[in-house]
Specification:
Blueprint (H helix, E strand, L loop, with lengths): L1 H18 L5 H42 L11 H46 L2 H6 L2 H8 L1 H34 L1 H48 L1 H6 L3 H27 L1 H25 L5 H42 L21 E8 L8 E8 L4 E6 L5 H8 L7 E6 L2 E2 L5 H5 L2 E4 L8 E2 H5 L8 H10 L3 H5 L8 E2 L8 H15 L3 E5 L7 H15 L3 E5 L11 E6 L2 E6 L1 H7 L2 H8 L3
Parallel strand pairs: 3-10, 3-11, 6-9, 9-10
Antiparallel strand pairs: 1-2, 1-4, 4-5, 7-8, 11-12
Helix pairs in contact: 1-11, 2-3, 2-6, 2-11, 3-6, 5-6, 5-7, 6-7, 6-11, 7-9, 7-10, 7-11, 9-11, 10-11, 15-17
Length: about 600
Amino acid sequence: MNQTVQNRSAQSTVVRLFSQLKGQRVRLAVVAGSIVIYVGLSIWNPMYSAIVVDHLWQSIQAAWKSGIPFAITWSNMGRELTQLSIQYLFTWIFYYLQSYLMASVAESLNLELRNQIARKLNRLPLRFYDQNKAGEILSRVTSDLDKIAEVLQTGLLKMIVAIGTVIGSLIVMFYYSVSLTIIFLVFMGISMLITRAVATRNLVCAAERQETIGQLTGIVEEYYNGRNVIKAYNHEAESLEVVEAAAEKNRIANQKADFLTNCVNPLIRLLTRLAHVVIAVIAGHAMLNGSMTVGVAQAFFQYINQTAEPLTEASFMINSLQAALASAKRTFQLLDEEEETPNPVHPAVLEKATGHIVFDHVSFGYQPEQMLMKDISFEAKPGQKIAVVGSTGAGKTTLVNLLMRFYEINGGRIMIDGINTAKMTRGGLRKHFGMVLQDTWLFGGTVAENIAYSKPDATREEIIAAAKAAKVDYFIRTMPHGYDTILDNEASNLSVGQRQLLTIARVFLCNPPILILDEATSSVDTRTEVEIGKAMKQLMQGRTSFVIAHRLSTIRDADMILFMEQGNIIEQGNHRELLAKNGAYAALYYSQFE
């Protein structure tokens, strides 16, 4: 039963892979035509060579009997030899043409799949990224697609050519000698049984190899990003052991797959050589008694080589195709992942938000059977500062993620200026927000480009003004090239605080009506925090702001404080009101000043 399911899955993967080639029908048609001509010439060349060799042999015998020196002229063998040479030339031309075009088809397919994956990654919910390591995703985008392209360029093309050549050659071989062909097929039948047994096992090993590559890439990527923490806690040895274990697992999987791919060929070649010996003895006897000519004998051996070589390499070609099949399956699994709910066909449009936000009996859970938030309700009026506090894991960041529609709610509704956010496009919703996270993100580029990420058409004057507002202009000007200083992809040439200041400058630049500040000043020193606080206070005037904070001293001026615990709001009110209640907020506040 499992084998049947596996075969059906493989067939559906093949059908789907070839459906991706529908945009390259012209190239594939030319490839198909080249293959037909190439295979036809490959079958005709030995037949014609038999005629040429027999004619040449007869001419040599006639000259020897008559005592006349043998010479090749245009009328005597010259025409035939020239035609045979031209046939071999065209055989090479059509082989080159099909190889060149198939490489183009494979790389175009690779590009199309990469584009599909790139678009897919933008449509996947955050839940997918929470459940999968970055390295495993990267493996599917790189090594899996490279494996597919590599096999399409070589293995698939060889397989198609081999099938046509083998069938045509066997027909001619039966025409020349039924008995010799049957002897050859017996040896090749044994070879094919061995190949089939190995190919079945190799499909499992190929899938295991790609899986272990993804796991190893994920671990290496994770440890690379956390290298400072690993060193700080002296976990180099433990992390090395984990990497070595994953590498060893990958080595074993590679060893199995490579062994199964390569070990069969020597055995198949041995069987082929034995077939050559037996056929040579019988063919020699046939030539002696005159039942087979010299030309036919040499042509028959050409057909044996044309047939035996593809059959010998069949195990390698099949195993390579199996590896590509496993990679294609993993690629399509990624493309089939559940996406974000699509944007409405006729979305609601909010030109300029005032910042009136309402959570109306909102419920949410990362898994439907395990609800994190059960009944969240509150109202944020335009221009208010809303502080969200609570212990780690209380659901503070989740709350703002729901506001931004990074996750879809399971019940209730979230309103902005009276419009249900579920009825807006995500892009239309998020353009009203500016967000500064605790974890900064800067890309490889200039300082100015990083600040302008929130407003790509910003002028240099606007960028500088935003940097000054974020108290970051001074240290930018001390850098080697000022605003044109190139940052690497991790901005490692900046301190954590400086990176945070640049992300804050982004928000100043885009000047959004709603702000989300998730511990925005957690990485800066006290003096800088005070300066940023002043600028932030000015920025938040007239704007609705959601501030996630652990230091309660920074949010005492908030219009409303939401105290969260285990995903739910257990207290809400301003600083004085919550202290008067003498509840959870008051206990946390006083604990920070003991």
